[in-house]
Specification:
The first copy, chain A, has 229 residues and is an alpha/beta fold. The first copy, chain A, is built from eight helices and seven strands. Helix content of chain A is 41%, strand content 17%.
């Protein structure tokens, strides 16, 4: 058990520094009237697809930018840029999560006066991103159907700290052994206030994809911050 | 960049301690003629299903135990025990990976003289488990089709350090937009020696599930260690 105690001792000053930088990020974005969403999920749950679908729904009304966090590559930022939206790629090297300092450097490359909404795509991970305040206004998570209904039991913290939960790849539910009753029960216990959006981010909005319900919620949150369309 | 340097400084002694304990775990398992497999993957990629399928294929010839690493719950260990195999559940609290010290405590609860093969199910994560030697004989990873072909580009390290790669949920490939050519190309570049097993861990072996090819490889590795059937 010795090394776990050591870890706690050394993480404390890092988290203190992170919290200070996160507060500064938050103040900076508040000042410019920018809403910041931190989107968290496992690798391959559909974070980038969800961001692309969200952009399509909201780009007429809000000026959007995306900050992409990945261990390596610029695959995701390239996809966002191809969509005609400013995107900053952060390569974390080995780090399994974004930190406030990384977000700060990305914010410095954006013209905040020309933005209303920034979406942070965190590194694919259900554990590490939960510990780090980035200065966001809301943390939202995605679970995808193929991952299984038991993930809320096995990774409870991320389900507890998310303001909303997207249940993505919902169109594939017939292919997988996903117990919706067990999932709903776990969410009702862990985070009863969180809305759950059943969604298929890669499907056209018209096909009852659930995208409109999700973006309506997000838009409401953006408005709560006093950001006009 | 300041806090990243701080992090490196403090992780070094932890990793040194981990490496020492991992070497001791390895010596202990060598002494008892036990092969140790560290199985890594994202949440929901099919680690537990793969372990259950592996048990079914090898339990007639080898005495098997499983050590389960999870943030919380004993869902997985319960499934393994229901299969009639000894299972030890490690709850890591917040930690996003197993460490050698945790594995040591689990090994101490098992009768190593009565075992040939121990499978460690690491915490669902493509990043953190790569940094920690647990004393295993082989690290193997699972990627599942729904996660997408670009994961090798985005999480290269885990693909590089794995001796073999299981491409699971292969039966669902028609449902997802998974570019096999791009995936194979990435593996050929990152880790050309690693065999890739296309598999459907939850499907019966008879249905060309790929399980037999995977367990034949594992059996070969166990035999290389001089462990008789």
């Amino acid at each position: 058990m010795k090394e776990r105690v050591t870890k706690l001792d050394i993480n404390t000053p890092i988290l203190d520094l992170n919290d200070r930088l996160a507060a500064e990020n938050r103040a900076l974005c508040d000042e410019h009237g920018v809403f910041v969403l931190d989107l968290m999920a496992s690798p391959g749950a559909g974070k980038t697809s969800t961001i692309l679908a969200t952009i399509d729904m909201l780009r007429d009304r809000y000026r959007i930018a995306v900050i992409e966090g990945d261990i390596a590559s610029s695959v995701d930022a390239d996809k966002i840029k191809a969509h005609g939206i400013p995107a900053v790629q952060i390569n974390t090297g080995g780090a399994c999560h974004l930190e406030a300092a990384m977000v700060r450097r990305a914010l410095e490359t954006l013209d905040l006066a020309e933005l209303d909404l920034i979406i942070l795509e965190n590194v694919g991970n259900l554990v590490c991103p939960t510990e780090f305040d980035l200065g966001e206004d809301a943390k939202v998570m995605i679970l995808s159907i193929p991952e299984g209904d038991d993930k809320a039991l096995k990774y409870p913290h991320i389900f507890q700290i998310s303001e909303a939960i997207i249940l993505n790849k919902y169109d594939t539910i017939s292919v997988f052994d996903f117990d919706e009753g067990a999932f709903d029960e776990a969410i009702a216990r862990l985070n009863p206030k969180a809305p759950v959006f059943r969604m298929a981010a890669t499907k056209p909005v018209a096909q009852d994809s659930g995208i409109a319900a999700w973006t309506a919620w997000l838009e409401e949150r953006v408005k709560q911050k006093g950001i006009a369309q």
